[in-house]
Write a structure and sequence with these properties.
The chain is α/β, with parallel strands linked by helices and 303 residues long. It is 40% helix and 16% strand.
Length: 303
């Protein structure tokens, strides 16, 4: 079938497109800039409805990845991209007679109340009500893998420093999923043809930030940290980081957003997607982090 993929140049899209092609699908990529080396590329912007005109023509399915990836964006940006943009894309999909629509949302819909999570909820509601024959909503946990950006990348860089940090133990827990496992789910859903499904995708476990940091230290061949800060100091550190950012105009790594994974849990034990698709995750967090580090070739590659 012909599959339209929005956000085709992003972290997930870059791995999804070759996986779809390997499964025998023709892929139409959509993104704001010039396309990668692929036969069918459409340059479009979710905030510019006219740019999406006809984008779904002759497509059998849509996998909608595009959105604002960072939570620091203003609420109006989330609304313009995730809400208004999804509304326009759904209208195009209906007009083109698309049979399947897969909306990649976020696990944060289940555990957060910020502008990012709210825009994802609104997107999900529109997809449920769109009237297409087959719709599926996918809520990935925190996605990691080679080429990742954000808090996990910063934590990996810090784990590769010669001296260990006293990262707090216990406290908030997070679910994660390797990018390759998420891609496997998205490809399999095209054959599954769910009518109205909502799936949370994780590797089946949950981790504290200290768990993640220790696995990263082991993967880069560094000794484990012997000490840990008390969790009670984290809010004060976050407030200090916020003040530094306001005074300097530059983000401090230890501000409220940077420390959010240590202070707020976001987990799920839902394994229905793996059961329904007859699959299991290929990656544990330990094996996934080890593979990432091995791809860089040596200790110190992250510092």
């Amino acid at each position: 079938m012909r599959v339209l993929v929005t956000g085709a140049r992003g972290f997930i899209g870059a791995a999804l497109i070759p996986a779809l092609e390997a499964a025998g699908h023709a892929v139409r990529g959509v993104g704001r800039g010039a396309g990668p080396a692929m036969r069918d590329w459409r340059q479009a912007d979710l905030t510019v409805p006219a740019s999406l005109a006809g984008v779904c023509d002759a497509c059998d399915a849509v996998i909608h990845l595009a959105g604002v990836a960072h939570t620091r964006a203003a609420a109006k940006e989330h609304q313009a991209v995730t809400v208004a943009g999804t509304r326009t894309l759904l209208a195009e999909a209906r007009d083109a007679g698309v049979a399947q629509f897969v909306f990649v949302s976020s696990i944060k819909v289940e555990c957060a109340r910020d502008a990012y999570a709210e825009s994802r909820r609104m997107g999900e509601d529109m997809v449920r009500a769109c009237g297409l024959p087959s719709v599926a909503i996918v809520r990935p946990a925190l996605v990691y893998g080679a080429g990742m950006r954000g808090n996990l990348e910063r934590l990996l860089r810090m784990a590769d420093l010669p001296w260990p940090l006293p990262v707090p133990s216990g406290g908030a827990r997070r679910s994660l999923v390797h990018r390759d496992d998420l891609v496997r789910v998205l490809v399999a859903l095209l054959a599954h043809r769910a009518r109205d499904a909502v799936y949370t995708v994780t590797d089946g476990a949950s981790y504290t930030v200290r768990d993640i940091y220790d696995l990263m230290r082991a993967a880069v061949g560094r000794p484990q940290a012997r000490y840990a800060l008390p969790e009670s100091v984290l809010p004060a550190v976050a407030r200090f980081g916020d003040r530094v950012a306001r005074l300097t105009g530059r983000r401090c790594p230890w501000d409220s957003e940077g420390l959010a994974p240590l202070m707020a849990s976001c987990t799920s034990e839902d394994r229905r997607v793996w059961e329904d698709l007859g699959m299991a995750p290929d990656h544990t967090l330990a094996s996934g982090i080890a593979a990432m580090v091995a791809s860089r070739g040596m200790r110190g590659a992250w510092s």
